[in-house]
Each structure stands twice: as C-alpha cells, then as structure tokens.
Amino acid sequence: MDRLEAFKTIAAQASRGELAFPANVEASIKLQQALVDPDCHVDLAARLIQADPLLAARTVAIANSVAYNRSGTQISSVRSAVQRLGVRTLQTLVAAVIVRQLGSKLTDPGLRAKVAQLWEHTAHTAALAQVIARRVTHVDPDTAMFAGVVHEVGAFYMLSRAGDFPGLMEGEPEDWIEHGEAIISARVFEELMVPEHVVDAVAAMWTGMRALPPETLGDTLLLADDLAAVRSPMHTRPGATTPQAARTIDFAVGDGTLQAILDESKNEVQSLYAVLML
Q1: What is the CATH number of domain 3-276?
Q2: 0.90 cut: is pTM over it?
Q3: 56, 119, 145, 187: which is deepest, by most CB within 10 A?
Q4: Which ranges constitute the DSSP H helices of 192-265?
C-alpha cells in the first residue's frame, strides 16, 4: 500500500469511528470523561488524579507555577492543587497526557523525533495562548491553554499510526492534510470530548487571517502558534509567519505593547511550558 492510500485508509477507519488508541490512552480518555461530567466535584477529581502518580505530580507542579500561584504559597497535596486549579485546568492536563501518549509506543527514531518536536511546539503554543488570553484578548485563559494543547491532536494521531504503515511519513508530511486531516481530527476531537467552540477556534486558526490586535479564541491560538519558538513538523499554515518575522510581531495593548506583556510574562510562559514538558 502506498502512503497516499494509507492516509485514505486511516481516514476511512476514523470516519467509521474506528480509532486505534494505545491502552494507556483509553484509560486517560475514561479519566477525561469523568472530569467532563458536570457532577464531578473537587473531592472526586482529586481522587481520580491521585490514582495516576505522574498526573498527580503534574497537577501539583502547575498549581505551584508562576501562572497559577499568585500568592507565592507553595502547596504539596493533590487536593489543594485541584482546589487552586479547578476542573477545567485538570481537563487540560489530562488532554496533554493523552496527546503525549499517542506517540509513546513508537520505536522508529525519525518518528519519535517528529513527535518530540510536535510536542515542544504544542507546549509552547499552549503556554503562550494562556498568557495571551489573560493579558491581551481576555478570552478564558484555561480554554485557550486547552485549545493550544489539542490544536495538533490530529497530527499526533497520524504519527501514532505510522508504526502500522511503514513509510507513511517518508514523503512530504503535509500530504496527510489533503488526504484525511479533517476527518481524522474531527473524530479525535469527538473522542476527547473537545467542546465545539474550541474545535471552531482551531479551524479558524488554520483557515483564518491573523487579526491584530487579536480578539477571539481563534485569534489567540493563531498568535500563540506564530510566536511559538519551535515550529510544527506536521503543518505549515498558509501565510504563516516565519520564526524570524514572529519575533517582530508587536502592537499596542492598552497603555503598553504585546512585546512588553510577553517580556513581563516570560516567567509565566516558561513555568507553564516546563510543566507541560514534564
């Protein structure tokens, strides 16, 4: 089977709801389902998080990060971390675990390198989106960070399937965009219970024009993606800003500028990025 036929096969499977997830991803999806339940309260969320030692450590770490620890008071218990963060931030952390797990079983060095680069790009984008949302666009910061975490989830899924289809990523990686990205991403978003307004924001990011100053969740995500220090190995947006040009993006925000805000928020972005990279 040539690689274009393989892309079409994977897309056809996805369209029928036949998504192939590793066992550890299935377990994390069940956890996400529990957190999305409106009846999930703090005590239950804390118990669910404590059952996963790595996730518990990440939860405490992000609660102590500069972005979430305004008082400077360090905490050590998962329950206290859950109380500080809220369930929506926990959903972002679980989504981050799921996305990273998608490529965890790959053994090919080239594919593992792509997954590593894609996650670095994702972590940069998510951290920047949280700060830009809070300081510039004033959309919900937790939603913005969640959108940053999941905006390339279709690409992660495709990479995870490359182990079953030798040579899948040996040509132009963006061939998969033409031969199945929309179907695959939609089905993975559905499986991960990504809210419709986040799906719409991701779609706007890929197809829209950057508005300066940015206003919407899609604008926030697009600007964060442009400013991310690490580029995606799986996507080049039409009209995307080069890394060199991205460093020159600036505009007025109230009495200041975007660059001033980014300079002031450097530690916050770094702290969020570091937690997502754990």
Answers
A1: 1.10.3210.10
A2: yes
A3: 145
A4: 196-207, 217-227, 243-246, 258-264
